[in-house]
Write a structure and sequence with these properties.
By secondary structure, the protein is of the alpha+beta class. It has 1 helix and 5 strands. It has a 5-stranded antiparallel beta sheet.
Length: 74
Amino acid sequence: MKDLTVIIDRFEGEMAVCEKPDRTMLSLPRAGLPPDAREGDVVILGRPARIDRAATAARQRAAEDNLRRTLKRD
């Protein structure tokens, strides 16, 4: 079975609300994620679950670039 990649949207108590590739949301127990996982991280749900640091960094750079472009237009 192929591992599922999700993006952590937010934490609600002991649950992590994650976005799946089809843009639907999935709630997972926080305990099943890497201990250093945080909002915005791309996580590969396998055994064990792991953070895709390269994909997380790429998403962060894209968001920062988008914000810079938006602020330049004003």
